[in-house]
């Protein structure tokens, strides 16, 4: 190891050793800044997985790729067993974790985020509603009847990871409030997609399991109201809720939303009590510390550290703790796996002209690109003109218009709805996915160019987002 590397491994503070990526106390990120960092990286990873899926679906491994996705996956205990294809397991099982994170983000935004203040919430809520209705209407105008009409929900969704990842590329030119606006808009958009899935994309209902699911959700609410702050009971009952919904015919991923909404948002300790507790523990820590002695051989010191860890968990709300713990696995594992399993579409360039004129592809593409722009920018303009909403701090309407283009990046949720709407129409599903992928790329480029042209470098750069 050379001298420079030795220096990089040693802290300037005596007694602290770490590698450059382990400086856990050197930088404090707010929950919002941490969220933006993870969404930006997740967007890049999603793009890589989508490209890989396209390569696999159109290369010499295409048959193996398709066969692998249809591999049976079985979970069982005794006489009970649950079997589904790997593709089904990813879309109905793993994606429940994605919806769980969506639910946690939604609850946090309503309680303490951008949606908590009605005056600030009017614009993103109204914009999101316009950005859902107009694309659906455009799609339905092109596909008013038959099986193709089931795809009206596809262009309603915005992919939060891709959209925020794209906007973060211009972090030095756009105000932080614009990113906050996009986050709030995308979360309301996700909620709308969840409602659409629950109400319009459920074919058959089995009432026995549905009643059991209602009872399990009621049990989760009882946990909350009775003051249970341990997360394990919530996770166990939420898993049972997922299985009950799977058997009922309602899409099982909605268990993630219901489970998240029941998670307590009130911590066990108040900040004042936690502060006093930490001060007492640090006094014991200092009194028990013996220079040169490892913490492994000092039982008193180890006990203080463990108690301090327990206190940290108790001053955090369970909702906050779960969102922090699960956001990274979902962003970096679950969603990329979903992209790898669902973005692989066979491309037939010889019939590309016919495909571009297909009603389903046209409906999805025009809905995402034109519908999102008209819906979000149009409703925002109307609300501002009526005086019922205000622009986010330091932003201009031209920047809101640029964000409305970025909102045309549909990807994750759009593909998810397409899988539900066209589960038995492979041609329509192929056209829908082709439209989603092509238009998402076009919307991202158009939005970035627009925002670059209408924005100037900000004077005070928010280091937490841009670094």
Explain this structure.
The protein is an all-alpha fold and 467 residues long. The chain has 2 domains: 29-59 and 84-200 and 324-466, Na+/H+ antiporter like domain (Na+/H+ antiporter like fold, Up-down Bundle); 270-313. It has 19 helices and 2 strands. The chain has a two-stranded antiparallel sheet. Helix 5 packs antiparallel against helix 15 (359-386) and helix 9 packs antiparallel against helix 10. It is globular. The two termini are 28 Å apart.
Describe, in short, the structure shown.
This protein is mostly helical and 467 residues long.
Descriptors for this entry?
single chain; 467 residues; mainly alpha; Na+/H+ antiporter like fold; 2 domains; two-stranded antiparallel sheet; 19 helices; 3% strand; globular; disordered C terminus
Helices and strands, with pairings:
Layout: H1 3-9, H2 31-58, H3 62-69, E1 72-77, E2 80-85, H4 86-112, H5 118-142, H6 160-168, H7 176-200, H8 207-225, H9 232-248, H10 254-262, H11 271-288, H12 299-315, H13 318-342, H14 352-356, H15 359-386, H16 397-406, H17 411-421, H18 426-454, H19 463-466
Antiparallel strand pairs: 1-2
Helix pairs in contact: 2-3, 2-6, 2-13, 4-7, 4-10, 4-13, 5-7, 5-15, 6-7, 8-9, 9-10, 11-12, 13-17, 15-16, 15-18, 16-18, 17-18
